[in-house]
Amino acid sequence: MMLLYLFLLGTAHTAQSIYPRIRLSHKELLQLNRTWVFQAHGASLQPQTMLLDEGHERIYVGAKNTLFSLSLDQVNTHHREIQWASTEPQIEECLMKGREKSECANYIKVLQQYNQTHLLVCGTGAFNPVCVLVRVGHTGQDKLFSLEKDSIMSGRGRCPYDPNSPSTSTLSRGELYIGLYTDYWENDGAFCRLNNQTYTRTERDDRQQLNEPKFVGSAVIPDNEDRDDDKVYFFFTEREMEAEGGNKAVYTRVGRVCANDKGGQRMLVNRWSSFLKTRLICSVAGPNGIDTHFDELEDVFVLKNKDGKNPEIFGLFSTTSAVFKGFAVCVYHMDEIRAAFNGPFAYRERPAHHWTPYEDRVPYPRPGSCASKVNGGGFSSSKEFPDEVLRFVRSHPVMYRPVLPQHRRPVLLQTEQGRRKLTQIAVDRVQAQDGHYHVLYIGTDDSVVLKVITIYNKDTDSMEEVLLEELQVFKVPAPIREIIISPKRQQLYVGSEVGVAQVRLHQCDLYGSECADCCLARDPYCAWDGLTCSRYYPAGVYPKSRRFRRQDVRHGNAVQLCNGLQIDDEQRPRSEERLVYGVESNSTLLECVPRSLQAKVLWFLQKDGNKHEVRGDERVIMTSHGLLFLRVRSSDAGVYVCQTAEHGFVHTLLRISLHVLRGERVESAINRANDGDGEKAAAPCPFSLGPLPGPSSSPRALVPSSVPGPHSRLWYKEFLQLIGYGDAQRVEEYCERVWCSDKKRKKSKRKYTSPGGEKRGKGRGEENSHRVPRQTLDA
Ligand SMILES: *[C@@H]1O[C@H](CO)[C@@H](O)[C@H](O)[C@H]1NC(C)=O
Ligand SMILES: *[C@@H]1O[C@H](CO)[C@@H](O)[C@H](O)[C@H]1NC(C)=O
Ligand SMILES: *[C@@H]1O[C@H](CO)[C@@H](O)[C@H](O)[C@H]1NC(C)=O
Ligand SMILES: *[C@@H]1O[C@H](CO)[C@@H](O)[C@H](O)[C@H]1NC(C)=O
Fold this sequence. Notes:
Belongs to the semaphorin family. Keywords: Disulfide bond, Glycoprotein, Immunoglobulin domain, Secreted, Signal. With about 775 residues, this protein is an alpha+beta fold. The protein contains 13 helices and 44 strands. Helix 10 (about 710-720) packs across helix 11, helix 11 packs across helix 13 and helix 12 (about 740-755) packs antiparallel against helix 13 (about 760-779).
């Protein structure tokens, strides 16, 4: 019931295609120079965390026992590494505690830019967390990347014990903010701030503050110009507090504290005096008023804006149901988040009761606000807050209003059963001719990155998802663990246990060589510049920018946009012409595969001045590779036109002339050739089976690419093999005789005319008939 319902939702919600417009395999990405992959010693890399350092043009990867520094230009060249394994006694102690060997290693889970010259790096240290500073950068020519040995310190409260424990951290003005389990047994989930002298944290064992949290993300976001008013936001899931034995649902939360919160003086000592949280909602309205909620936060991405105060928050969610996994992306605005925190506090009489808005007097200064000038400057530190305020905030950490997403709905939804799982998200803001777009990069559990834009239609209040590209960034399937985006370099850095891949965000020329191809792609990075599909730069970025650019991301209306640039489609000389030979009663494939997986393929047969659509039947089948004739008849001969339709734009890809050879004729041709000896067979040169097609690339059909050329010999060999003439060696000999090259002719001349040399010559000739053909054929 629920499954069916979700399925219906998925189809009703958006206009979406499950096919990407372009799908690129790992091999293709490598061939296109679109990607590079860093693999450490061929072993599994197990990256735990990654950090982008554009200042030093490096990306750091915290892995098992090793910290890597990779080049942002090309991740697989000039890498550096620091080995930082646990010591033997540490590993032994870990094993004594009953842990697995694989867990008893130093997994680097915290990686922060401490200052211009140093990273703060923390690892699990075989269940004994440890931190250290790492020197980075360069002095003159010397590249620096080394552990500061005398800076090693305990990592307790900064790094979890367990490599699989979820944690999040952010560093701002020398202070580390971190959400983690602070203890060996994973009982104490806390959100903390640490520097080397003080710490502030959530209350221990206060299930009202945090209840079995799973930490996902965090960011420091200023409210205004007053740095003392900066807030730290963190994103997590937790179990709802219910009465004894109640069903404890999982919720996604956004929590926040003041960055400068030092806790109270008499109460809440070293505890947050500003901790508040509320629920993040990501749901789809059902037909009968029942919403389907996506409550499990998988990943969060904070898309910064210019002044840093109003980033957009992208959450990747899944359903909490064990039976059914659906995924959704919701976008939140800071206005909405702030409004929830400025709204009423939540209140309930007892855990079994419903939450209601707290309506009594709220003490001053408002609980949750920071000690800052903006708030009147009456308090220079949280330590001066009245007890009444601290008491209130301690007993009312939950806000009544949840945060709703933009447009009150997900921007992206995946609800079909059995599809791949979505694991990570990164987002780029791209300026296009018709507005700005968010390009979503979504990592999956099978090494794929999906590049998607979502378009909101105000008139219909609906969302359109456009799946631009599906990129298989690793050779073998593995869950994507991290995606970091560098808008400056227009690159993605993608981590999985297999390695770290670097992928260029766009490759416009791939969409095709015509205006329509470019326009239909709807890629906001790309536009038609009159000659090619190339990177689009908004006006003013490059003052001497080129001609008029054609781009229509919103509608992909190629008919309108490329009007006048296209010759009448019917007469275009551009569409490729091919010649295909079928043998009567045998199968033949007319191959036609459009670049775009979203295009619909149509076939037409032109014959005797008529043109009609080929719809397919039990003998003629429309496959994703082309039109397949199971048993071709001589009446099938004609010109087949392969057209694609996409967004109302019709495009002729290919014209194929199908010639049908009569079976006996082919057989007899072969037999004739076999019966004859060398001299006889050399005569019909070139052979007279009709016009000569070029080489075939298809295993089933004879699909020459163009006019006969130097490769026709290769094609001919294949041809004979394909029509069922199985004796490869004799086919080769036969080809050799039939398709005597100039060289061969000269050779034969020598062979047969040189007196007295016949025996030797013949012997050599036999050798040649096996060796030379291969060379000439492959030449
Ligand atoms: C990829 O790079 C290599 C080496 O730099 C070059 O030879 C090759 O032509 C490039 N391929 C493409 C498709 O640009
Ligand atoms: C960064 O911090 C380290 C350790 O406190 C210190 O030695 C170094 O001088 C600092 N670098 C800068 C540029 O402040
Ligand atoms: C850390 O402590 C040392 C010594 O107590 C102090 O000199 C240094 O400034 C402190 N660093 C920070 C970032 O507070
Ligand atoms: C082609 O058809 C003929 C006649 O039906 C048959 O003998 C021959 O084996 C077929 N060849 C192939 C390659 O199917």
